[in-house]
């Protein structure tokens, strides 16, 4: 054995000992399925690689499952948001209230259509938009509320719906990470005038590539989204462009793959919820050590990630690394403090809960194929943090 292979073997062993945050074997069980799907699509006489019959069946499967009027598959969760904002007619002069903590698309899609994001602080524990903070920011220019379900918790949709109705606002539900969550009997994605899912790798029904869907009961909005996703064409007349659209189409390989993995989704989500319940039961007593688990329960929850708040977050992250547990910080900065979005926010603005979440949040591994032994190791490692 050469020195190089010995070194890489040693490195591989160390890597094997550490429980990764992003598992390298996420699609291992579905490897043959993926290769079969590539071959099926590639050799299908239809030779449709985007927006073919697999995509149509995938849309129909989700539509039926959600009991929604329309599901429109598109290129990503981010473009799903853009398509919704465009179809809702939002643009220059309009204000859209978004959470001050979350992922970049919450701000950049709003700015991208020429509207202005108005950042509302989040709840200090659930980390989703605080409806009181949102209400305080409503002005005559406000046209929409854009809450996002964050980490494992759905936003307070009943209160946000009341707020939207009272003030005549559009309610756009960023449910990108919450596929499978159900709040008060109603699925995530169906609470807003429109909702969306993302199928990027890390999301609750992630796949090996980019993809998303728009969900809506509004036939006019659905019709416009369908046109906008494919260069403004109506699906009947090729090369007749009714609207200034974009390219946000869905891949047939992803559609075929997701159609066949869909029956296993509920089981994978249940396993995630089971791991989350185990973590929360063990971590609840850690409050006096400055470590706060997410609120327990299953109503309005989807454990696409499991996120703690830790007063000494960076120390906890280092401690876990020493104990062979990889962890991840989503998101280390509040949105209005990002260089790209700060110019859109008031210079003297403060979002204390968002800023604290950016300093304290830490996500643990929670993928469904973690073994019970790995879950115990992660739990023990967190419990051994001296605080
Ligand atoms: C991931 C995510 C998106 C964007 O989805 P992509 O498919 O990555 O473009 C939008 N909103 C939220 C809350 C997300 O977590």
Q: How would you characterize this protein structure?
A:
By secondary structure, the protein is of the alpha/beta class. It has 2 domains: 138 residues, Aspartate Aminotransferase, domain 1 (Alpha-Beta Complex); 233 residues, 3-Layer(aba) Sandwich (Aspartate Aminotransferase, domain 2). Helices cover 38% and strands 12% of the residues. The strands form 3 sheets. A 7-stranded mixed sheet has the order 1-9-8-5-4-2-3, with helices on both faces. The protein has a 3-stranded antiparallel sheet with strand order 10-11-12. Strand 4, helix 7 and strand 5 form a beta-alpha-beta unit. Helix 10 runs parallel beside helix 13. 46% of the residues are buried. The N terminus is likely disordered. The site of pyridoxal-5'-phosphate has 13 residues, from helix 4.
Condensed summary:
This protein is an alpha/beta fold and 387 residues long.
Secondary structure layout plus pairing:
Elements (H helix, E strand, L loop, with lengths): L2 H15 L13 H13 L9 H14 L3 E5 L2 H11 L7 E5 L5 H8 L3 E5 L10 H6 L5 E4 L11 H11 L2 E4 L8 E2 L2 E2 L6 E5 L13 E5 L2 H10 L23 H10 L3 H19 L7 E2 L13 E5 L2 H10 L29 H9 E4 L7 H12 L4
Parallel strand pairs: 2-3, 2-4, 4-5, 5-8
Antiparallel strand pairs: 1-9, 6-7, 8-9, 10-11, 11-12
Bound molecules: pyridoxal-5'-phosphate (PLP).
The site of pyridoxal-5'-phosphate (PLP) has 13 residues, from helix 4.
């Amino acid at each position: 054995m050469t020195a190089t292979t010995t070194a890489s073997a040693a490195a591989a062993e160390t890597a094997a000992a550490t429980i990764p945050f992003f598992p390298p074997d996420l699609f291992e069980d579905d490897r043959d399925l993926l290769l079969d799907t590539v071959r099926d699509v590639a050799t299908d006489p239809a030779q449709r690689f985007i927006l073919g019959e697999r995509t149509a069946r995938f849309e129909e499967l989700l539509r039926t499952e959600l009991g929604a009027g329309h599901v429109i598959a598109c290129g990503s969760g981010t473009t799903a948001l853009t398509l919704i904002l465009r179809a809702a007619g939002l643009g220059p002069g309009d204000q859209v209230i978004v959470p001050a903590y979350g992922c970049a698309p919450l701000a950049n899609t709003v700015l991208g259509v020429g509207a202005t994001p108005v950042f509302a602080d989040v709840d200090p524990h659930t980390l989703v938009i605080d409806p009181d903070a949102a209400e305080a920011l409503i002005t005559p220019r406000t046209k929409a509320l854009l809450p996002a379900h964050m980490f494992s918790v759905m936003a307070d949709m009943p209160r946000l719906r009341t707020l939207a109705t009272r003030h005549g606002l559009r309610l756009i539900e960023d449910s990108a990470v919450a596929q499978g969550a159900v709040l008060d009997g109603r699925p995530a994605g169906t609470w807003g005038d429109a909702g969306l899912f993302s199928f990027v790798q890390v999301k609750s029904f992630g796949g090996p590539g980019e993809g998303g869907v728009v969900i809506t009961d509004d036939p006019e909005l659905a019709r416009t989204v369908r046109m906008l996703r494919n260069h403004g064409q109506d699906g009947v007349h090729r090369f007749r462009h009714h609207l200034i659209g974009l390219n946000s189409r869905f891949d047939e390989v992803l559609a075929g793959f997701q159609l066949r993995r869909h029956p296993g989704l509920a089981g994978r989500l249940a396993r995630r919820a089971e791991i989350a319940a185990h973590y929360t039961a063990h971590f609840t007593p850690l409050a006096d050590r400055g470590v706060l688990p997410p609120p327990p329960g299953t109503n309005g929850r989807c454990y696409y990630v499991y996120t703690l708040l830790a007063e000494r977050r960076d120390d906890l992250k280092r401690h876990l690394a020493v104990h062979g547990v990889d962890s991840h910080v989503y998101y280390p900065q509040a949105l209005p403090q990002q260089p790209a979005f700060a110019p859109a926010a008031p210079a003297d603005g403060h979002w204390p809960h968002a800023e604290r979440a950016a300093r304290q949040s830490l996500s643990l591994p929670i993928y469904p194929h973690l073994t019970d032994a790995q879950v115990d190791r992660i739990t023990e490692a967190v419990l051994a943090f001296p605080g």
